[in-house]
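Quick one: structure tokens for this chain, please?
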Amino acid sequence: MSEKPLVSVIIVNWNGRQYLDDCLSSLRNQSLGDFEVILVDNGSTDDSVAFVEQHYQDFVQIVRLSENRGFSGGNNAGIATARGVYIALLNNDTVVDQEWLSSLVHCIHSDESIGMVGSKILNYYRREEIDNTGHLIYPDGLNRGRGRLEIDHNQYDMKTDILFPSGCAALYKKQMIEETGGFDESFFAYGDDADIGLHGRYLGYNAIYCPKAVVFHKYSGTAGMYSALKAFHVERNRIWILVKYFPVEAIIVSPFFTLARLLLQLYGALTGKGAAGKFAKNEPSTLIMKTFIKAYASAIKGMPDMLEKRKTVHQNRRISPRAFKTLLKMHRMSCREIALKE
């Protein structure tokens, strides 16, 4: 490794000891040699740090945090240490193909305007099933992976523009991250890749999907696939995304889209369809209601801060609101897809 590596791979870990060996051993086999690996430990209480020190001391730099600062805070801590020109974010519950990093670097080098590159993320356990090929967005700020749960028939094997990549496995220009001010730690987890991705878009950076950069993901391994913790952050943070980035006219009409989504999610909860159906099966209805009430209360409490951040975004933007609105329209997803898919 050089003194100033081309890529800094950042892995945020919280009690993820069971995932680390698979993840780190796959990174050791990368065809690209010019990179460093930084593991940010969010105050784990398992033996994550001891395991990495014992088995990967010569390969991984550990940043120890005394508390859990979430995905956002953990990545900011890693970026502060990173020496690379590019920042690769990688979930701890992943295994990467040998050509993952070299493919991402090749894609980002193809055009100076590219600030973000997304991977082809497949389900670790059912490898013919797609997890994510770049994000789509719903008109109320909620987003999810393009192609999720589809069987991979090579339908996403073309390099193409995306709105922004999944933070599960993506490459960013460090310069772009620095211009955004880094991850917004108010988000803590979920939606933080949307936040920095949309901010980068306002700064004029493009995002590209790289189908040769293949990653296998043990989906929602840390927080749980249908947990109340995840539901809280997803719902609260999508409101903050809406307020920080969407055009005013889109914010005004967004409650109608939210109502339509919630009605379909209620249908899903009653019929067992989609993520709402899975959540309702595992949790009592009272907890679901409390989770949504808590999410909206937290979103309202943070609204003044988000409005101030919105001003900063628009003061520094390099594309027009009209151009941004066009991006949202190009990468829009349907109500049925957002509400009734798992």
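The mean pLDDT is 94.
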